[in-house]
Automatic annotation (TrEMBL):
UniProt-recorded name of the protein: GNAT family N-acetyltransferase
Subunit structure: Homohexamer; trimer of dimers.
Coiled coil: none
CDD domains: NAT_SF
Entries under PROSITE patterns matching the protein: GNAT
The family this protein is said to belong to: Belongs to the acetyltransferase Eis family.
Keywords: Acyltransferase, Transferase
Organism: Promicromonospora umidemergens
PANTHER family (alphabetical): N-ACETYLTRANSFERASE EIS
Amino acid sequence: MAFPQIALPAGYRWRTLTSDDRRLVTELDTWAFPSGTSHDDLDAAPSPLTWDRAIAVEAEGFDGLVAMHASYPFEHFPVPGAELPTAGLTWVGVHPQHRRRGLLTAMIDLHLARTAERGEPLSALFAAEAAIYGRFGYGHAADDLRLDVPRGAALRDVPGAERHTVRVEVASRERHGDLVDRLHRAAGATPTGIPGINRPGWVTRETEALQALHWDDAPVQRSGHESRRILIAELDGEPRGYVTFRRSLKWEPTGARGHVSTGEVVAADGAAARALWGALLDLDLTNEVSPFTLPVDDVVTQLLVNLRAAAPRTPDNLWVRLVDVGAALAGRRYAADVDVTLAVTDTRLPANSGVYRLQAEAFGQASVERVDPEFDAPELSLDVRELGAAYLGGKSLAVLAAAGLVTVHDRPGQRRNPLASASTAFGWPVAPGASWVF
């Protein structure tokens, strides 16, 4: 494989990876991310990697890999009102003996160069360390919601919820794979039931390798919990929602203390969601239900009578990087009419730096052209990092400007407020976020 001209420090060399390198990858991964699980047990699980997108670094005189990164080919990554090909950056790690030598910088530069060569206008990731990726142009684009909901927590009534039936089964891909895939995709495409209003960032597991790992239920995947279960809400025999979960149980002097840890909680509408949560919060021998990576505007935030009692937290979810600014801006929809000129800086990908005129009608096709600032002066200036933060519609350009990260340029005789109009247009009716960590 030919690499773009991305230099490594002296004594290091690039290396392509294949499935035959699985043990080497596992050994490096456990150096970068310590694990108490044996290498044999880790290797017994399906690998999620797309191997022709996995690149390692070797060092002279060192046995094994010293660094690696990979990406997932998300051909249908949801952006506001549309989908764009996106490189899901993942498995980024450096052996502790080889840190602080520029290997991460070289790997990110190689990843961005290869992403651009493939024609993918975006890269997205989950950050193991939140302080790292901003300096490479990734913007904090979405958050998610974590809760610890007490058993029996009061829920508001929703008309039609009582018509649903609920069944609980041991989860398996053979029995539930198609159902889960269909409902998950629908939840991302029309989370409110309004056509065209999708949930940005609601990425699906597009490859067979990702699906295989998701459904793998070996003991090493359970973290002391039981095998994976699934709770399905149906209306007239038609599945309308699901939640996957695992329970754990401890016997204390006061009696049983149980915990429910969920995977995705997905529902077609509020009635199905109310049926799911009503059943989930009424499981025997449990004290608490902890859902994982809910959208920050998930309907449960409206259904819980006392949200405060569930101790809500909102850690960072997706980070987004525009690799082709023009294509990325033109590829999404906007929530209001917009005609704004943006001056974008990008030190890692200088070809992105320039002035862009963005024009779009609300929820319609956008047009983007590069313009000469002498004749079309920029109204807003920002770095590609801030553009990435605002791109999925979850972070406000106005708030970024208030923090001093977006500059507003006054024009003589200007009647409209470019920051207000652009901030409104870049927003989106539904909060962005992914339901699983890649």
